## 1
Amino acid sequence: DAKTTQPNSMESNEEEPVHLPCNHSTISGTDYIHWYRQLPSQGPEYVIHGLTSNVNNRMASLAIAEDRKSSTLILHRATLRDAAVYYCILLIQGAQKLVFGQGTRLTINP
Amino acid sequence: DVKVTQSSRYLVKRTGEKVFLECVQDMDHENMFWYRQDPGLGLRLIYFSYDVKMKEKGDIPEGYSVSREKKERFSLILESASTNQTSMYLCASSSSGSGSYEQYFGPGTRLTVT
């Protein structure tokens, strides 16, 4: 499984944008980039995924570098509820097995 | 609203007991998964299933078995619980297809084996 690298922790302030980076230099052409997050005492929840183009949904945006070796999850206006561990995961097209790394623990200050 | 439910949030069992963890999804998903989550080790895949009566080993299947008799239900079985199986257990489900599909997770069962 291709590997991703994320910072262990990040901190931001409420109502400010947050950019969570992920490096995946060994990504292959058929790997999708998935982001999940895990709020305290809950199971992980899907945030967003993409292949080559930038993606937006109601939760976040995903910016993918042109060479696909890195990506950034963007929370446009963080709230206290966004405090969670965020996981960046590569998934081969059609595959189902998620491999979770340690993720980035995001702290939001009021 | 999509839903994955797990039979218990908290469970305490004794060493040597047989333990059943149940997971039910209401989204008609083909795929179901069992993970365990431990501090410092993250989430690790135990078993998964692509269809009724089908099962595949994940990364850490030792000491566990699974059962999928109906599409919506996936059970994790600890034949003889041991203290090193104390953990948070998470069930998930997803749809199949040629694209890439998100997994929906249940709330988890925190199992303590004494």
Note: The interface with chain B takes residues 32, 34, 36, 42-46, 49, 51, 91, 93-94, 96-103 of chain A (CB under 8 Å).
## 2
Amino acid sequence: NAGVTQTPKFQVLKTGQSMTLQCAQDMNHNSMYWYRQDPGMGLRLIYYSASEGTTDKGEVPNGYNVSRLNKREFSLRLESAAPSQTSVYFCASSEGYTIYFGEGSWLTVV
Amino acid sequence: GIQVEQSPPDLILQEGANSTLRCNFSDSVNNLQWFHQNPWGQLINLFYIPSGTKQNGRLSATTVATERYSLLYISSSQTTDSGVYFCAVKRSPGNQFYFGTGTSLTVIP
């Protein structure tokens, strides 16, 4: 049982480049999330999707776009990466009470 | 949104010691969870505890929903307990979990 799988695990981008972080869950959950984690700031919600076909902004959506491709997959796109987007990104899914996280994607923008 | 404050921000313990971590939240919630983030970054659910008390081995948690706080107790700490402990809350209706900034625990042999 893979749970929540996100790729890539590590990525270095140059300022202005674009990239997409991929996330898939195999637990048949309706809700999926993208968080970023920065030192001393906990996890902050970028976007979430309550169900297939819906997406909503979280606390820090600027500079990001998302796509809920189907029930399993929720991708996060950086159209023009900036150094301020250097962070660890976590995808998560939930159904009912508990939220489950992927292993994180370490992104550095130089 | 809901403000979540955790204390202390940092904690260093000798192996075998006990500790209490606190999570305060600013509004009524119907979902509260504790997580452990290990040194490799992996986030593991410890407890789902919107109210009451639960125990799992050396860990236990208590949430007093009416007073808007939760406590995580770690007894007989081990080096493998090191990492960051997060509290997260959610209120219905809504899908957003709000996280605290975490307590960084270091257990020294």
Note: The two ends of chain B are 40 Å apart (CA to CA).
